[in-house]
Write a structure and sequence with these properties.
Helices cover about 50% and strands about 20% of the residues. It is of the alpha+beta class and about 375 residues long. The longest helix has about 40 residues, at about 40-80.
Length: about 375
C-alpha cells in the first residue's frame, strides 16, 4: 500500500519547514491586538492556524525522532560499552519504525485538499427499495450520522423530513456545521444496502433494502449566482414533527428554480423568513452540486478513481446485521463491528476512504 518515495517526488522536509514557518507567521499575526479590529482577517487566520496545527505537531514529533535517532547513531559510533551500544541499537529500531509511520502520515496530509472540503454540508437521506424497512433503515442512517456528528462536535440541524408510518423516514434533509465537514462526509454519497430481518417480517427471513445518501457542500451566495426572477416561491402549511404551530400557519416554504426544475423546501422553523433562508441554502447546494458532480466525473475518468466517481447511483456499502458485518465496496473494507458503526463510530471507515483517495491523488501528481 505504501509506495510514497515513488509517488511523492517533492522534498518532504523542505515543505514541512515552509509550513512551520507559515504557522509561526500566523501565530505572530494573531498575537497582535490589532487583528481583532478586522474580524474577517481574524477568522481567516484562525482557520489557517487550525489547518496547519496538526501537521506542525506531527513535524515537531518527526524532528524529535530524527534527532534521537541521529544521537543514538553517534553514541553507537563512539561508545565501546557493548551494553550501551545494544540498548541504543534496540531503541533505534523502534525509532525507525515510528519515524517511517509518521513520514507516511505526513506525506498523505500534505496532499492538497479539495477546495470544497472545508465547507459545511447538507445531507439528504432517502428510503429506496424495500418499502417500510427501507424507511426504517433511512432513520437508522440518520441516527448514525447524528451520533457521528455529536462525536466530532458538529452542529446538526434538520431542514425537512417526511416520516414513515412504520418508523424512520421516507426522506430527511439536514445540515452539518463544523470543521472539515464536507471533507469527511463526501464519502457517504451513494446507495447504502442493508441485509436483516425486518421487524415486520413474521417468517424470520432476511430481507435486503436500500437507502440513498447525497452529501452536498453548503455554499454561499458568492459561490453560485441565482437570478431571483428564475425562482417560484410557494408557501404551504407544514405537517409532521415540530410542535403544535406547524398546523396553524402557512410557514413552510417551497422554492423552485424554474429553468432547471430543482426544488428545495423547508418547514422546520416557525417563521417563513427562516424557512426561506434554509430552503435557499438547500437550493444553492443542489445547484452547486450539479457542477461539482460533473467535475468529479471528469476527474474520475482521468484517475479511474474508486472513491470519488460522482456516481450517486453506485452501491457503496452493505450493512449485514445477521453477521454484524459492514463492507465498504469501494476499498474492499470489511469490519465486524456493525453495532459500533451504527452508534456513530464511522471514523475507521471514513479514514480508510480518505487515505485511499489521497493515495490516488498522489499517484496522479506523480504521473
Amino acid at each position: 500500500m505504501y509506495f510514497y518515495n515513488k509517488l511523492y517526488p517533492m522534498d518532504l522536509e523542505k515543505k514541512l519547514l515552509q509550513l512551520k514557518a507559515r504557522y509561526n507567521e500566523v501565530n505572530a499575526a494573531m498575537s497582535d491586538p490589532a487583528v481583532f479590529d478586522d474580524p474577517e482577517n481574524y477568522t481567516k487566520l484562525t482557520k489557517e492556524r487550525s489547518d496547519l496545527e496538526e501537521v506542525v505537531k506531527d513535524f515537531d514529533r518527526y524532528s524529535e525522532l530524527k534527532g534521537n535517532l541521529e544521537g543514538n547513531l553517534e553514541l553507537i559510533e563512539i561508545n565501546e560499552d557493548p551494553e550501551i551500544t545494544e540498548m541504543a541499537a534496540a531503541e533505534n529500531k523502534e525509532l525507525k519504525a515510528e519515524l517511517g509511520r509518521l513520514e507516511e502520515e505526513l506525506k498523505i496530509k500534505l496532499v492538497p485538499k479539495d477546495s470544497e472540503d472545508s465547507k459545511n454540508a447538507i445531507v439528504e437521506v432517502r428510503a429506496g427499495t424495500g418499502g417500510d424497512e427501507a424507511a426504517i433503515f433511512a432513520g437508522d442512517l440518520f441516527d448514525m450520522y447524528r451520533r457521528y456528528s455529536d462525536d466530532l462536535g458538529w452542529k446538526l440541524q434538520i431542514l425537512s423530513l417526511n416520516e414513515s408510518e412504520k418508523g424512520g423516514f421516507k426522506e430527511i434533509s439536514f445540515s452539518l456545521e463544523g470543521h472539515e465537514v464536507f471533507g469527511k462526509m463526501k464519502y457517504e454519497s451513494g446507495v447504502h444496502r442493508v441485509q436483516r430481518i425486518p421487524i415486520t417480517e413474521s417468517q424470520g427471513r432476511v430481507h435486503t433494502s436500500a437507502a440513498t445518501v447525497a452529501v452536498l457542500p453548503e455554499v454561499e451566495e458568492v459561490d453560485i449566482h441565482i437570478n431571483p426572477s428564475d425562482l417560484r416561491i410557494d408557501t404551504f402549511r407544514a405537517s409532521g414533527a415540530g410542535g403544535q404551530h406547524v398546523n396553524k400557519t402557512d410557514s413552510a416554504i417551497r422554492i423552485t428554480h424554474e429553468p432547471t426544475g430543482i426544488v428545495a423546501e423547508c418547514q422546520q422553523e416557525r417563521s417563513q423568513h427562516q424557512n426561506k433562508e434554509k430552503a435557499m441554502a438547500m437550493l444553492r447546494a443542489r445547484m452547486y452540486d450539479i457542477e461539482l458532480e460533473k467535475k468529479q466525473k471528469a476527474r474520475a475518468a482521468e484517475r479511474k478513481s474508486q472513491i470519488s466517481t460522482g456516481d450517486r447511483s453506485a452501491k457503496i456499502r452493505t450493512y449485514n446485521y445477521p453477521q454484524g458485518r459492514l463492507t465498504d465496496h469501494r476499498i474492499n473494507l470489511t469490519l465486524y463491528n456493525l453495532d459500533a458503526v451504527m452508534k456513530g463510530q464511522l471514523h475507521e471507515v471514513i479514514e480508510g476512504l480518505r487515505i485511499q483517495d489521497n493515495l490516488e491523488k498522489m499517484q496522479e501528481m506523480a504521473e
